[in-house]
TrEMBL record:
The keyword Isomerase does not apply. WD repeats lie at residues 1-24, 26-67, 69-110, 112-153. Pfam families: WD40. Residues 1-102 form the Bulb-type lectin domain. SUPFAM superfamilies: WD40 repeat-like. The keyword Transferase does not apply. This is Bulb-type lectin domain-containing protein. It comes from the Eukaryota. Keywords: Repeat, WD repeat. It comes from Serendipita vermifera MAFF 305830.
Length: 222
């Protein structure tokens, strides 16, 4: 099978051998279909559209599965399934990348922000741990959608007691307070001042709720 999306606002499935259309076109988008992809098991098709939405379809019947995924503020330019079929990734002219729950259509986490121009292509690594995006700003970006979103770190702030806070002022991680003055924050790459520059390696950083349990145990032990 081959799946195609068109400016005629439809999605079509074709027999790869004969070139014949399989069933009727899938109708539901209100503007151009810009990107399509099969799920790993071939049972679902995902489409992105210039109507700013993502839609999942039953590959056999052509019926929409659930409501359109809404969240992007501009054209959806690219869509992809994760290798396990549980997540859908989308890129948009709104300069963001989003991850969705393929079953519920709910956004998973905050949008990935960092590109300075529209996102033109997205993909998921074979192990499902990375999202890759290409952009009109001539860059390729890798994201870890299971861990901290990029904008949490780039917009982080330093608190006086050693906690690094995200853009929503929630705790990300703790460092000894005496190194805070020299800690490079956000996109800073050079600090000129009386303090030694300190950087934190976040390559294996996991962001979630488990730190709360750790903090509670520590307070009890103290």
């Amino acid at each position: 099978r081959i799946v195609s999306g068109s400016w005629d606002e439809t999605v079509r499935v074709w027999d790869a051998e004969t070139g014949q259309a399989v069933g009727a076109p899938f109708q539901g988008h209100s503007n151009w279909v810009t990107s399509v992809a099969f799920s790993p098991d071939g049972k679902r098709i995902v489409s992105g559209s210039s109507d700013n939405t993502v839609q999942v379809w039953d590959a056999e019947t052509g019926q929409a599965v659930g409501a359109p995924f809404q969240g992007h503020s501009n054209w959806v330019t690219s869509v992809a399934f994760s290798p396990d079929g549980k997540r859908i990734v989308s890129g948009s002219k709104d300069k963001t990348v989003r991850v969705w729950d393929a079953e519920t259509g709910q956004a998973v986490g905050a949008p990935f922000q960092g590109h300075s121009d529209e996102v033109t292509s997205v993909a998921v690594s074979p192990d499902g741990k990375r999202v890759i995006s290409g952009s009109e700003n001539k860059t390729v970006q890798t994201w870890n959608h299971k861990n901290v979103e990029r904008d949490h770190v780039s917009l982080s702030v330093k608190s006086e007691n050693g906690w690094i806070l995200d853009s929503r002022l929630q705790r990300l991680f703790w460092v000894p307070p005496h190194i805070l003055p020299g800690l490079a924050a956000g996109r800073a790459f050079l600090i000129i001042g009386p303090f030694l520059t300190t950087t934190v390696d976040l390559s294996n950083f996991v962001y979630g709720e488990s730190w709360v349990q750790c903090e509670e145990r520590t307070e009890t032990d103290d």
